[in-house]
């Protein structure tokens, strides 16, 4: 399937089977993240693979949005290596980690796996529970696994604004 077809059929899976993700598929997902572009190629992403019963139990104390996935990737960035824009010192790490997460999410879909982007968690609690260094900023959780047979896209999955509402050429002519 081509990329746009993949982008259309991929949906946020919120109900997973307990079938484990094969190590080879996990490696491909992690490689997709490794290959993702980052500002100034600083590669500040830091990915914690949570696939043991103990680590997944810890995660459940940090968020209710784990969906009992057999594998969760915790994606963050290291502030000591992320690129900062010289004009305002804006840290690109959050964007870099988001690009990495998107690449991994799409590779998971390409491999027949489901995922959902989770941003609903307390970063300080995540840092504490997983003993992250203070320089690591958690950005996203990515539960991954095989969709349960009862899993289906959200009813709003296919609803998209017309291009004219979100795409502008040369000037913003926003009509409310």
TrEMBL record:
PANTHER family: NAD(P)H NITROREDUCTASE YDGI-RELATED, NITROREDUCTASE. Gene3D superfamilies: NADH Oxidase. Its cofactor is FMN. Belongs to the nitroreductase family. CDD domains: nitroreductase (cd20609). InterPro entries: Nitroreductase, Nitroreductase-like. This is Nitroreductase. Residues 8-59, 67-146 form the Nitroreductase domain. GO terms for molecular function: oxidoreductase activity. Keywords: Flavoprotein, FMN, Oxidoreductase. Pfam families: Nitroreductase.
């Amino acid at each position: 399937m081509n990329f746009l077809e993949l982008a259309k059929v991929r949906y946020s899976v919120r109900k997973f089977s307990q079938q484990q993700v094969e190590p080879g598929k996990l490696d491909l997902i992690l490689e997709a993240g490794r290959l993702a572009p980052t500002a100034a190629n600083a590669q500040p992403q830091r990915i914690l693979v949570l696939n043991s019963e103990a680590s997944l139990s810890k995660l459940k104390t940090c968020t209710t949005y784990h969906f009992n996935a057999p594998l969760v990737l915790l994606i963050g960035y290291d502030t000591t290596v992320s690129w900062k824009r010289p004009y305002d010192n804006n840290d690109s790490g959050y964007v870099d980690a988001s690009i990495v997460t998107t690449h991994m999410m799409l590779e998971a879909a390409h491999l027949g796996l489901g995922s959902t982007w989770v941003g609903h968690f307390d970063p300080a609690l995540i840092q504490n529970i997983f003993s992250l260094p203070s320089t690591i900023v958690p950005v996203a959780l990515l539960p991954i696994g095989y969709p349960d047979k009862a899993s289906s896209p959200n009813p709003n999955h296919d609803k998209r604004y017309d291009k004219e509402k979100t795409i502008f050429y040369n000037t913003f002519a926003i009509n409310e």
